[in-house]
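Below is how a single chain appears once it has passed through the pipeline. First comes the sequence as given, then the structure the pipeline wrote out for it. We keep one example in the README because the format questions we get most often are answered faster by looking than by reading.
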Amino acid sequence: MLVPRSNLRTGISEIARCSCSNRFVKCATAILLMFIACGLKAADHEHLELAAAVKSSFLSRTNGVARLFSKSVNGTEFERHPKFWLRGVSGPEAIHVGSGAGATAVTPWHVLGANHWKQDVGAHLCFCDAVGNTVTRTVVAGTEIRSDIKSDIWLAVLDKALPNPIAPLPLMPADWTNHIGSEPLLVTAMNQRSEFGLATLVSLQTSASAWFRYGCSYCSSDLAPNLVFLPLRAGDSGRPIMTLFEKNLVLLGHITLEYGYSNFAGPDYSRYAADIQSAIASLGTNNIAKTQKLRMVNFTPPYLQ
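Resulting structure:
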């Protein structure tokens, strides 16, 4: 556990005011100061700005192409593009890449997507693992999250658990915005053509209260001209909005609205995480599915729960 920075600084000041005539005391004081300095460095690491770390992770990978697949047959057979810019990152496997509305796995049994255009009971979802194998699942139950206050979030249960090569995406904790830091947070969003483009979080609020109470606004980023997110303005609903934490995509929300040529908005899943977890425990008839827990990011090791 790290000592608060204010306490560390107070300790340094007090030690500095002491007159140490004894050689042993001087040596002990020097050692103590060294440990305090290490504590300050650790505290600095603990308060690492998320946006700066994310920017570094994204911009070190901009020498590829935006499209996840080089080939798709009937929306059910896929060939991963060898130059996909986020290759080697954990996360794309958890995203539905077939036809219809977007959906993203958050447990081996559950997906989240847009309530206004959803993968309803009976819908078939397609996922593609890192080596190009297609996994198909069927939605057997679903529910809207917090219909009383609006969320535009649809939770669905699958007929079978997804296999281990398809790792569900983690969510941010409720206080994640306190860790963003002083510069804009970069994100990536996926459109209906399975293109992952760069965008920037521009506001932690939106004017779309008729759609959801808690959400964020984004704008396409030109930091990497070959990877600008392209809103297609029809058919992108439910597609994921993510950021990159270390080598893991983290699910922030989904696309609900696209307006203009570069702006879009969607709900902030972290603000509804407790409601989503509660719905998981009661939705459907599969008792194993009801025991599943959302994966959450920590900002101290271990980073993923």
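The chain has five helices and 14 strands.

See the next section for the split statistics.
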